Amino acid sequence: MEGKYSFIVRLDLSDNRQARISKYLQTLHEKTSQSINGFVIDAIADYIDYQSYTREQHNEDMRRILQEEMQRVFVSSSHNQAQVVVPLHQPQTKTVDELDQELADDLELFE
Fold it and tell me: Concatenated DSSP letters for 14-78?
């Protein structure tokens, strides 16, 4: 079976959740004209897509919240303070994507 991967799923019918899954899979073809194999592939693909979307959306939400909060803090503090210019010791050499990845890595510490 070159080019194919297979695995076996065992369901414990004494477990209510697994018994419910087993019952649904047994009637799947009658209800949707879909095979169990096709259903499992779709379910796994949807789960992976959902997980990846959730992570990306979470990171984007965190970036937006941090940006809004930083703008709010800087704007409110700039009214009360004189402008301070801090020279950079090193020129910025990182790309936006690298900076985004560093931010995402730092945010994972809070999960």
Answer: TSHHHHHHHHHHHTHHHHHS--HHHHHHHHHHHHHHHHHHHHHHHHHHHHHHHHHHHHHHHHHHH
Query: Among residues 2, 5, 14, which one has the least CA distance to residue 40?
Result: 5
Residues 6+ apart with CB under 8 A from 53: none
Encoded amino acid at 75, one letter:
V
User: When comparing pLDDT for 33 and 24, which is higher?
Assistant: 24
Q: Say what the pTM is.
A: 0.44
78-110 pLDDT per residue, tens: 666 666 666 666 666 777 788 788 888 877 776
User: Which residue type sits at 4?
Assistant: K
Of 53, 25, 59, 50, nearest to 40 (Cα)?
25
